[in-house]
Design goal:
Among the domains are: 141 residues, Endopeptidase. Chain P, domain 1 (Glutathione S-transferase Yfyf (Class Pi), Chain A, domain 2, Up-down Bundle), CATH 1.20.1050; 65 residues, no CATH class. It has 682 residues and is of the alpha+beta class. Strands 3-4-5-7-6 form a 5-stranded mixed sheet, sandwiched between helices. α1 runs parallel beside α4, α5 runs antiparallel to α6 and α25 runs antiparallel to α26. β4 and β5 form a beta hairpin. The relative contact order is 0.11. It is built from 27 helices and 7 strands.
Length: 682
């Protein structure tokens, strides 16, 4: 008998509200047996499907396929939440062990010729299906085709080997990055080195150092290249050290070197694409996205690059003048750009972003900003449930309801920790799925905010405030999506559409009536002066050239790596040289504006789900900017506007063509002009 099976909480649905996993009873020894049992159960279910004598139908093929794997769904949701948010050594070791097994299991399903034949038969009779069934049949058929279901036996064997190895490598990339990010956190021992940092950030840095048993202060690293502290640190040498640490992640000789890992990933992805009949990995990925082809992605990026770079060069020139006026020696480097931009912003707009932090206390931002906007738009009320436990004590649980019913639970994991990967994200533990009898959802937002010492308030930056609104937009998508089938549940939409609802929700962070509700000084309680709020909105356009350029550089790198065919991928041996050449070819080689992510710490594409799809953020932003304009034209923060967006876009989840949903909402295809105007690229 498998250890941990008899009392394993993953074997049965949770009895807690909304199906919240019973974190207090889940033990480390439960995971591997649950994975083993879950995979075995699903294979048995598939064997039953293909053994049916009757002709394939939706009812005897796709429906039982959708209900298979309930144990595997439950354990995967919890385990991979922890693998991102609290990756202890045990979790890391088990992830390395289980990832190739899961890849092999996925292949056992998708490369099953008899199952694929039945799916094709259902697809052939799709005219008899209702719209959601028909869309599900299309999605599953596409998934199987792109997974290699139609290949010859020998090609399937090769594909299995590639997939198992890729799962090992992407897991290793992430583990290397987390470890190296921790190792490269900047340890400061002289108080003078902290000059310019706000008192709350200094306290957080001291707490981070104490947590690791160090004297002094520790500046932990966030995922993007440009670290937030670069805008405040007054000493140029400290800024240089901090940026150097950021850029070095995963790119140093030693046990955490991601260069050989990513090169092998790129080569294997190119080989897999050829097996599947595609010229490169990007062609495989975009075939299942709204973009459809890499050429469409390239066309959009090429339209945006020239004006973005032009604006970035103008901004760099302005900062050069600022450096000269400030008497700084020599030409400013990339490490100086954020610091000088902050001074330029103060001079032009009288806006000091550091001085905004006392107005952005996290609890007030959450309750009087994020939650209040959701209440005004959608009638939601969020109530903290102290009686329900997350996976760690600091994970908070909120019940979410509208005027009619409880929609589910929202979990918030705000703070950074050594076991958490960088960045911010949303994921689902439970989806609203009619076929499974799940009428409530459980969703999580993770951020990486430095944790202050006990008793001190958590003050956010403006960027982090917008990130919280952004991630809550994903959470709303997961909470509102109401579908029949698991494959179509929650945020299971194309990568180049999934960011659209979250980016729309960002608009409320600076919406006047929302900002006025949460932006109050931590000491005095006084609201942010209206004229300061106006200057903030005006100042947001400054620096968009650099911000757009650093994003486009990362997107171009992603495309460059994944547009390589087999021979070209094999020829690349120097990661840094490839990056330089790719950026130069794209017209994005600005030394003062490095890519948002360099290859060795580009987790989105080498360990996450955005390979060849990092373009998705700005692709989705076309829809987002046009939708923001719709809200502006229709009165903004109004309940009828929120109800329309909820019913047409969010509630649909992945149950219909996303661009059709957008057209129904907007009344036409998206226009790119609002995006160009927003980013100063018109």
């Amino acid at each position: 008998m498998l250890v941990g099976v008899t009392d394993n909480p993953f074997l049965e649905p949770s009895t807690l509200p909304a199906g919240l996993p019973p974190f207090t009873t889940i033990r480390p020894e439960h995971y591997e047996p649950a994975f083993t049992r879950g995979m075995a159960d699903q294979l048995v279910a598939v064997a039953r499907i293909v053994a049916v004598d009757e002709p394939a139908s939706f009812a005897n093929t796709l429906e039982p396929l959708e209900t298979s794997g309930d144990v595997l769904r439950r354990v995967s949701a919890v385990f991979f939440t922890l693998a991102s948010a609290d990756a202890t050594p045990f979790i890391r070791e088990l992830e390395a062990l289980i990832a190739p097994r899961l890849a092999a299991h996925a292949d056992a399903l998708r490369l099953n010729g008899r199952l694929y034949a039945r799916i094709e038969a259902v697809w052939a009779g799709r005219e008899a299906l209702d719209p959601e069934q028909r869309y599900l049949a299309e999605r599953i058929r596409t998934e199987f085709v792109l997974a290699g279901a139609g290949l010859e036996a020998s090609a399937k064997d090769e594909l299995r080997t590639l997939n198992e190895r890729l799962s090992e490598l992407t897991t290793r990339f992430d583990a290397n990055l987390v470890a190296d990010t921790n190792d490269l956190a900047l340890h400061l021992t002289e108080e003078a080195e902290l000059a310019g940092l706000g008192a709350d950030l200094v306290s957080a840095a001291a707490a981070a150092a104490r947590e690791r048993g160090l004297d002094g202060w520790l500046l932990t690293l966030v995922l993007p290249t440009m670290q937030p502290a670069l805008a405040s640190l007054e000493r140029a040498d400290v800024r240089e050290r901090l940026l150097a640490a950021s850029l070095a992640r995963g790119g140093r000789d030693g046990e955490h070197d991601n260069r050989p890992v990513l090169l092998e990933i790129v080569r294997l992805r190119a080989r897999r694409a050829r097996l599947l009949g595609f010229p490169d990995h990007a062609a495989v990925v975009t075939a299942d996205e709204t973009a459809r082809t890499p050429a469409a992605v390239t066309a959009m990026l090429e339209r945006l690059v020239p004006p973005a770079v032009r604006n970035a060069r103008d901004e760099v020139g302005a900062l050069q003048r600022r450096a000269t006026d400030a008497g700084l020696p020599g030409d400013p480097t990339a490490a100086d750009q954020a610091y000088l931009a902050e001074r330029e912003r103060r001079a032009r707009f009288d806006v000091d972003t550091d001085a905004l932090r006392p107005y952005l206390e996290a609890e007030r931002v959450l309750r009087d900003g994020v939650f209040r906007a959701a209440h005004e738009l959608y009638g939601l009320t969020l109530t903290e449930r102290d009686d329900l436990a997350g996976y760690l004590p600091e994970v908070r649980v909120f019940e979410v309801r509208d005027e009619e019913r409880v929609l589910g639970l929202y979990l918030l994991d705000l703070y950074t920790r050594p076991t958490k990967r960088g960045g911010a994200w949303m994921n689902s533990l439970v989806d609203r799925v009619g076929l499974l009898g799940q009428d409530q959802a459980v969703v999580i937002n993770n951020l990486n905010v430095p944790k202050p010492p006990p008793g001190e308030p958590t003050l956010l930056t403006l960027d982090t405030t917008e990130t919280l609104f952004h991630e809550f937009g994903h959470a709303l998508h997961g909470l509102f999506a109401t579908v029949t089938f698991p494959t179509l549940a929650g945020t299971n939409v194309p990568r180049d559409f999934v960011e659209f609802p979250s980016q729309v929700n960002e608009m409320w962070a600076l919406w006047p009536e929302v900002l006025a509700g949460y932006a109050r000084h931590i000491d005095t309680g006084e609201p942010m002066p209206a004229e300061l709020a106006d200057r903030i909105r005006e100042a947001r356009r400054f620096g968009e050239g650099a911000a757009t350029t650093e994003y486009l550089a990362a997107a171009a790198l992603d495309q460059a790596w994944h547009r390589l065919d087999v021979e070209a991928a094999e020829a690349v041996t120097d990661v840094a040289a490839f990056e330089r050449d790719a950026l130069a070819a794209a017209g994005l080689d600005l030394p003062e504006v490095p890519p948002r992510y360099s290859s060795t710490y580009f987790a989105h594409v080498f360990s996450g789900g955005y390979s060849a799809a990092y373009y998705a953020y700005i692709w989705s932003e076309v829809l987002d900017a046009d939708t923001v304009r719709w809200f502006e034209e229709h009165g903004g923060l109004r309940r009828e506007n929120g109800d329309r967006f909820r019913s047409v876009v969010l509630a649909a989840g992945g149950s219909r063509d996303p661009l059709e949903a957008f057209r129904e909402f907007r009344g036409r295809d998206a226009a790119i002009e609002p995006l160009l105007e927003r980013r100063g690229l018109a």
